[in-house]
Amino acid sequence: MIRLGLRLSIAGGRESLSRLILIVVAVAIGVGLLLATLAGLNAVTKQNARYAWLETGYRGSDASAGAQGRATTAGVEPVWWRLRADYFQGRQIGRVDVAATGPTSPTPPGIPALPAPGQFYASPKLVALLETNPAGELRDRYPGTLIGTLGAAALPSPDSLLIVIGHRPADLSHDPRARLERRISTTAPSRCNGDCAPGVGTNANGLVLILSVATAALLFPVLIFVGAATRLSASRREQRFAAMRLVGATSAQVATIATVESTLAAVIGVLIGFMLFLAMRPLIALIPFTGERFFTHDVVPSPVSLVVVAVGVPIASAVAARLALRRVAISPLGVARRVTPAPPTARRVVPLLAGIAELGYFAYIDNIGANTHTNTTLEAAVFLGGVLLVMSGLVIAGPWLTLLASRLVANRANRPAALLAARRLEDNPQAGFRAVSGVVLAIFVGTCAVGIITTINAPAVRSHEVGAYATGTLVDVLAGPDRLRTGTALPASVTTELDATPGVTGLAVIRDQPQPRPEIRPSGAPPGGHVFHAFQQVVSCAQLQHVPALGRCRAGATTAAIDPDYGGGFELRNHRTMAETTWPPSRLTSSRLDALPIDTVVVGTNSSSAAVEHARTVLDAAYPTAFAAETISEIHADQSRLLRAYQQLANVVILTSLPIAGVSLTVSIVGGLVERKRPFSLLRLAGTPLATLRRVIGLEAAAPLFITAAASIALAFLSAQLFLRAQLGESLRRPAPGYFLVIAAGLGAAMLVIASALPLLRRATGPDAARND
After folding, report:
1. Sign of CA dihedral 334, 336, 337, 340
2. Is residue 257 within 8 Å of 5, Cβ to Cβ?
3. Which of 381, 461, 482, 715 has its CA 20 to 30 A from that of 119?
4. Cα–Cα distance measured from residue 160 to residue 126, given in angstroms and rounded to the nearest whole number
C-alpha cells in the first residue's frame, strides 16, 4: 500500500502531481515562516542572555548563584567594578570601569584579560565612532589607549556600543558607585531578581510577557496557513478514495494510501521549508525585534522547536488526511450522501466570552498589575491565557458569525449571485470562515498592538511640538551619592568651556532647597518643630531665560520654584509642556540660591550634534555620574525602552502576520475553486453566466471577511482596554488616522487576493470538469 500510495502521488496524472506540488509549496512556505518565527523569538532570549556580564555587582544577579557560585570564587582576587551609562547621538553606550586587585581577578567575556590602567577595550561599532568623530565630542570621555575590541561573547548585538576601561584600584576604591566583586555575573536580565542593573537588557517583567504574546500572535496565522495547505483538494481525494473502496479496497488500505500521500507532500514541504529558513536567516537577523539586530548564529530555533516542526507537521498532515476520510471509512458511498452538517450555534461564543471575562476580572476586580508582589510568570500566564482564549474564541465563534453574515446577505439578496453565495455560506459556514481566518487574526493582533502602543505613547505626542527643545536640551541629574559631592558651584572650567562651545545657548543650574513639612514626621518624632523630608527645586530666572525648554519666570521674579518632568514626554501633569509653563516665584534671593547644593545641570543648545556631544563630554568630565547627561528625548526613550521593544515586536507581528494571512487566503480560495469546480461547471452548463459565478465567489469570501473583521476589531480594542487598565490604570485612546488607513488597505489587499483567483474560474469550470471521475 505504501508503494501504491507513493506511485499515485507522483504518477497519478497531472492533477495529482499539481496537487502535490501545490501542497509542497504551501507547506514549505508555512514551515519556513514558522521556523523564522521561532528562531526570531529564540534570538531575543539569546540576545538578552549576552547582557548577563553587565549585571555584575547587583544582588539580583547573585541570587541565582547560590552556594555553587560562592564556591567558585574561592581563591579569586576581587576586581573593582563600576557600570555607567553614556550616550552619543541618541544611542546608549555601556561603560564599565574596572581595576584588578591581583592576577586572579575575574575577567568579563569577550576579552583575554582585564585592561591595565590607561588601557581600554571597545566594541567594533564604538571603535568606528571613536575614529570618525572629533575627539571633543566622544574620544575625550575615555582616558587611555585602545588595546583591542570586545569579542562577540560580550556583545548582545553587532551594533552594541560597549567599552571596558582599566584603572588603578585607588582610582575606584573611593567611588561610592564602584563595587568589589569576585565573580562575573552569568545571570541574564530576564532572570535577575530584585536589585538589577538599570537599563540593561529586558528584565523578566517585560521579556516573559513580550515573548509569550508575540509567540501566540505569530504562531496562530502560521498554523492556520499550514492547516489550509494540508486540506487542499480534500473533497477530490475523498471521491477518489471512495471509488477505490467500491472496487474492493478496505478502509485501512485507503487510509494508508491517503496517509502516504499527505505525509509525502508534508515531508518534502518540511525539507524545502528548512532550506527556505536557512536562506532567510541573514535577513531575519536584520529585523530589530528588540530595537537591535541579531547575530546570524543566534537566529536558530531551540532544539525542541526543530524536532516539533520536523516531526509535528508530517504527523499533523497524516492526521488531517485520516480525518478527511471519515465518511469513506463509514461506507464507500458516504461521500455521495451529501448531508448538510448541523449549523453552528451561539454556544461557540462561550470561549470568547471566557477570555474577555478573564481579562476583565484581572483588570477591574483583582487588579493584578497594581500588585507589586505578583509573580511575573503568573502575571504573564494570566494575560497570555486571556489573549489566547480571545484569539481561540474568535476562531471558534467565526463559523457562527459567518452563519449570521450569510443570513443577513440572504435576507437582503435581490440578485442571483447574492442568493447563491448566501445559501452556500449557510450550507458550510465553517469552510467560509476558514478561508478568511488568517486575515481576521492578523487584524486582531495588529489592532490590539496599535491600541496599546497609541495609549502609552499618548503623553509623548505633544513633545513633537517642541522637538528642537527635546533634542537640544541636555540634562545632567546628579542623583544618589553623586549629589553629596557636587558642592554649590559649578567648576570654572565647566562654565568657561561651555561658553566657548559653538551651539551652546545657555546654562541653568537647578538647586535643592529643603522644605519643612510639619504635618508629616517619622514614627516617634517629638512634637513641634519641622521635619525636613523633601526638597523644592529652584532656579535662577536669569539662567532660565537662556534655556527655554524649562519654561519661564513671572515678570520681575529673580528666582523660581520649578517642578520639571523630563521623562514624561516633555509634558507635565496638567498637560502643558515645560516650555509653556510659567513657574511661581521663589522667596530665595540670588545670593541664597547660590549657596544651595546642585541637583541638576541643564544645558541649552541649537540641537546640533556637535554642540550636544561636546557639552556632554564637558559635563561627563566634571560629573562622572551613573548616567551621563542626556537630552530630554533620550531620557524619554530610556524610560520607554520596554515600550519600544513592544512596538518593535508589534511591527514585526503585523508585518509578518498580514503576508502570511494573505498567502493563506490565496491557498484557501484556490483550493476552494479546485474542490468545487464540478458544481460550478454544472451551473455553467445550466446557463449561469461566468460573471455571476465570479460574484458568488467574491461574496462568499467578502461576507465573512467583513463581518468577522469588524468583530475582530471590536474585540481587539476591548482586549487592549482591559490590558491597559490592568497594567497601567489607563483608558484606551483612539488610534491615529493611519491605523484606519492600514486596516482599509489590508481589507482591500484581501479583496485583491480574492479577485486574483477569479480568472482561474474559466479554466476550472470547463465541460470536462462536469464529468463524474
Report:
1. positive
2. yes
3. 482
4. 8
Give the Cβ contact number of residue 721 at 10 Å: 21
Q: Measured between alpha carbons, how far is 709 from 366 in angstroms, rounded to an integer?
A: 31
d(CA 404, CA 422): 10
Express each pLDDT in 574-601 by its tens digit: 556 788 888 999 988 888 888 888 888 9
Out of 7-16, 439-448, 658-667, 676-685, the most confident range is 439-448
The per-residue pLDDT for 116 is 93
pLDDT score for 527:
46
In angstroms, how far is the first alpha carbon of the chain from the final one?
22
Q: How many residues comprise the chain?
A: 773
Helix axes 376-412, 350-364, angle to 10 degrees: 140
Cα–Cα distance for residue pair 625/127, rounded to 1 Å: 23
Backbone angles phi and psi of 540, in degrees to 5: -75, 135
Q: How many CB atoms lie within 10 A of CB 590?
A: 11
- Helices in 640-676 by DSSP H: which ranges? 641-675
The set of residues, in sequence order, having a beta carbon less than 8 Å from that of 142 and lying 6+ positions away, is 95, 120, 122, 130, 163, 165
Given pLDDT bands bounded at 50, 70 and 90, which one contains residue 758? confident
- The C-alpha atoms of residue 202 and residue 645 are separated, in whole angstroms, by 9
Residue type (1 letter), 311:
V
Q: How many CB atoms neighbour CB 436 within 10 A?
A: 29
**In which residue are the cell numbers 523578566 written?**
204
Q: What is the DSSP string of 550-595?
A: G-EEPTT-SEEEE---SSSTTB-TTS-BGGG-EEPBPS--HHHHHT
Return left, alpha or beta for 91; rule: phi > 0 is left, psi -120 to 50 is alpha, else beta: beta
Average pLDDT, the chain: 77
Q: Which three cell numbers stand for residue 44?
A: 531575543
Per-position b or e across 74-85, b if 16+ CB within 10 A of its CB: eeeebbbbbbbb
With cell 509623548, the residue in question is 460
Burial of 153 (0-12, 13-18, 19+ CB in 10 A): exposed
Cα–Cα distance for residue pair 17/577, rounded to 1 Å: 67
Element (H, E) at 158: none
pLDDT of residue 227: 62
User: Pick from 275, 277, 269: which is nearest to 229 by CA?
Assistant: 269
How is 377-428 classified by DSSP, letter by letter? HHHHHHHHHHHHHHHHHHHHHHHHHHHHHHHHHHHH--SHHHHHHHHHHHH-
Report which of 744, 90, 742, 738 is spatially closest to residue 454, judged by C-alpha positions: 738
* CA-based nearest residue to 337, from 239, 245, 232, 234: 239
Q: How confident is the model at residue 648 (pLDDT cuts 50, 70, 90)?
A: low
Residue 448, SS3 per DSSP: helix
pLDDT for 66: 45
Three-state SS at 83:
strand
Whether 469 and 579 have beta carbons less than 8 Å apart is answered as yes
